[in-house]
Amino acid sequence: MAYEKPLPRINGDNSGFWEGCRGHLLKFQQCRDCGHVRWPPADLCPACLSKAHDFLASKGLGRIYTFAVYHQAFHPAFAADLPYTVAIVALDEGPHLLTNIIQCPPEAVRCGMRVTVVWEAVDDTITLPKFKPAA
Fold this sequence. Notes:
The protein is mainly beta and about 140 residues long.
């Protein structure tokens, strides 16, 4: 059966991130001039306005900053997943990423919980980063 959930749109700004995800690597832009690590990707550094950047490989570890447990599907493709947890994960390198928490009952999810990235290969172009409790 085909994947029915909405998928991110890959463009020039975010293509480096999604290429990294295909290889099971979280990559974020890091300013060459001031070192600021940014997400989402952008043409200019929000800290110093430089256009120069490289990609920083994340270790894929962080803490849950905030979360919500969905008990209603707002898209029919998510109905089988109910209840599911959507969270903002504060990665150790600085960026905050909106993602899903998996392999953890919703009632066990807590702000501050350590999490690690896991990967869901959707198709040949998209692999989604999701997070589970860190061991």
